[in-house]
Design a protein that fits this description.
The complex is a heterodimer of chains A (301) and B (273). Chain A is of the alpha/beta class and 301 residues long. Chain A is 32% helix and 27% strand. In chain A, the strands form three sheets. Chain A has a six-stranded mixed sheet with strand order 5-6-7-3-8-9, with helices on both faces. In chain A, α7 (213-220) packs across α10 (284-292). The longest helix of chain A has 16 residues, at 162-177. In chain B, 85% of the residues lie in helices and 0% in strands. In chain B, 48% of the residues are buried. Chain B has one domain (2-269). Classes of the chains: A alpha/beta (301), B mainly alpha (273). At the A-B interface, α2, β5 and α3 of A face α1 and α6 of B. The structure holds adenosine-5'-diphosphate and magnesium ion (MG). Chain A: Residues 6-229 form the ABC transporter domain. Chain A: Its EC number is 3.6.3.-.
Chain lengths: 301, 273
């Protein structure tokens, strides 16, 4: 037996003629945070709904803590935050969360949970008066109900301001800390991915990458950028280490991850001629673009 | 079952908050009272008490109003949640789809029952107080209330069926208006047309009463009329009902909520939120 609490093996699903999931295999371990990235329509929501048993898959298998999607055991083990969720406007936040707690069958500190997501002031106000961000927080509060084994968050950052985002990361960390496997779907490039343990990228129903951030950088082979600030003569430095002079006093050069150390040694050998050195690894955005975008005409994928 | 009750409690709260319960009850009271007073004129000539006349008019009212109120309360039950995106979340919890449907049904039927009991009950009380009531007319009133609730149950479940089939809340509203028209108006018109064409032939004699009683709205009417001679007398509609065995109308009306719930459950199963 593996330790994977969520195991998706070769999931394939067609919708009409379109293949929305194509041989997707993905596992998440307890306490692991995995980002699921991809453009709109890549199939992230479909994959999450398949895990929840809300939509069937054509072939392949999904296993949640040893149970089949949609079974009572699996539903008890999972928590879900739908994309752009809304609730009945006539109920209060406390009433809505109490209903979820009852459906979950777990004793819950409803007021405490709402306080945890920063809704303690709006506890007894109708959801109709909530802002989009507040509804999203209410959605997050129900994810925390009953210590789920797997949490599936579909675009959790949408509608959140930067400060709320910090709260979201804290909640994701709290979930992972208590041993929940967390899968976070996102189409936008946010800080979430950098704070996850692994990144999976989908493109048109296919899983095109599934690795740690470092692993992805290595595979992509995107260059690392070095910027050297000269103490006196930038041209002399450029002549010695190659690269390009940008503004008066700096030289910029790109190198592959393998060449990085060798290149750094050459720079430090220059001694006092170098005033400062800046190393910029490939930006998350570049990585994402590398994997998530269609290969260009003529490119070999 | 606890989960169904939890859902029912929430739905009931929603009905109170959005004033549906109050509005439905007020509609029932107003219509029932209006009909009771409007129908009070011919009391003497027929030799029955005023409550009997009142029950006869309210039976006619209920054929239209009970399905209407029931559909108004139920058409949004699934489609509304689906529109909001909260249906997917609800179904990710351990409550089964049957429990979700049952929970909503308990709340919606209770609300309908409250409106019926208060509406017909107050009109009946006024009629009895001002024009007298006997044991028979009191039984007729009780029968009217109970059968109206069952008729409501039929259309609550049919509303869920439509709500599960419709792609949106708006579509569900349109479809339930159509359903109401078919069951309450067009079906009878069609039958009537067939009877006229048939000119008292074998269709009118044999098939027609059964076709009529197969419609829950007509079964409701027949049950109430057949149950009380004096109600039948005042409503002037005895012919077709007398051709049927007494159990036909009750069986039809009691079967329909089961059929409706089964259809709704099947349609609900097909939804991918
Ligand atoms: N209910 C549906 N009916 C038909 N097609 C759908 C439905 N939901 C999603 N799709 C299609 O499936 C594909 C994947 O969608 P989705 O999983 O929502 O993508 P993502 O969440 O990554 O943006 C898209 O091409 C979308 O058009
Ligand atoms: Mg999506």
């Amino acid at each position: 037996m593996t330790a994977d609490v969520l195991k998706i093996s070769n999931a394939t699903k067609d919708r009409g003629k379109a293949r929305v999931l194509s041989d997707v295999s993905l596992t998440v371990q307890p306490g692991e945070r995995v980002a699921l990235l991809g453009h709109n329509g890549a199939g992230k929501s479909t994959l999450i709904k398949a895990v929840l048993g809300l939509t069937p898959i054509g072939s392949g298998a999904i296993c949640i803590d040893g149970a089949a999607p949609g079974s009572t055991k699996a539903r008890r083990a999972t928590a879900y935050l739908p994309e752009a969720v809304s609730f009945h406007p006539a109920l209060t936040g406390r009433e809505q969360l109490t209903l979820f707690a009852k459906l979950d069958g777990a004793k819950a500190d409803v007021a405490g949970l709402l306080d945890r997501v920063g809704l303690s002031d709006a506890l007894d106000r109708r959801i109709g008066t909530y802002s989009k961000g507040m509804r999203q927080r209410l959605g997050l509060a129900q994810v925390l109900l009953g210590k789920p084994a797997v949490a599936l968050l579909d675009e959790p950052t949408s509608g959140l301001d930067p400060i709320s985002r910090q709260d979201l990361y804290a909640i994701i960390d709290q979930l992972a800390g208590q041993g929940t496997a967390v899968l976070i779907a996102s189409h936008a490039l946010t800080e979430v991915e950098a704070r996850t343990d692994r990144i999976a990228i989908m493109r048109k129903g296919e899983l095109v990458a599934d690795d740690t951030l470092t692993g992805l950088s290595r595979r992509a082979g995107l260059p690392i950028r070095l910027r050297v600030r000269a103490a006196t003569d930038a041209d002399a430095i450029a002549a010695q280490i190659g690269g390009q002079r940008i503004n008066g006093a700096s030289v910029e050069l790109n190198c592959s991850p393998e060449d990085k150390m060798a290149q750094l040694r050459r720079i430090t050998d220059l001694g006092a001629a170098v005033a400062d050195l800046e190393i910029t690894p490939p930006k998350l955005e570049d990585l994402y673009r590398h994997f998530a975008q269609e290969p260009k005409e003529g490119d070999v994928s | 079952m606890n989960r169904a009750f939890a859902i029912a409690a929430c739905e009931m709260r929603i009905l109170q908050r959005n004033l549906w319960l109050v509005v439905a009850t007020v509609i029932m009271v107003l219509f029932a009272l209006a009909l009771t007073f409007a129908g009070s004129a011919p009391t003497g000539s027929l030799g029955v008490d005023m409550l009997t006349v009142s029950v006869a008019s309210m039976t006619t009212l209920s054929v239209y109003l009970a399905p209407l109120l029931a559909l108004m309360i139920s058409f949004d039950a699934i489609a509304g949640d689906a529109d909001r995106g909260s249906l997917a979340l609800l179904l990710s919890y351990p409550a089964s789809r049957g429990e979700v449907l049952l929970g909503k049904f308990m709340a919606h039927l209770s609300a309908l029952a409250i409106a019926m009991v208060i509406g017909f009950g107050s009109a009946g009380a006024v009629a009895a107080w001002s024009g007298g009531a006997g044991t028979e007319s009191l039984i007729a009133l009780a029968r009217l209330i109970v059968t109206s609730i069952i008729l409501g149950a039929v259309f609550v479940t049919l509303g869920y069926f439509i709500s599960s089939l419709a792609s949106s809340s708006t579509a569900a509203a349109g479809m339930s208006a159509g359903l109401w028209l078919i069951f309450v108006v067009l079906y009878d018109l069609g039958l009537l047309g067939a009877v006229v064409m048939d000119q008292g032939g074998s269709f009118t004699q044999t098939l027609f009463p059964w076709l009529m009683v197969a419609n829950p709205a007509d079964a409701f009417r027949v049950w109430n009329i057949a149950g009380s001679d004096s109600v039948a007398l005042t409503s002037g509609m005895t012919g077709a009902a007398s051709a049927l065995p007494v159990w036909a109308a009750p069986v039809s009306l009691l079967l329909w909520p089961l059929i409706g719930f089964g259809a709704a459950r099947l349609a609900f199963q097909r939804i991918e939120p």
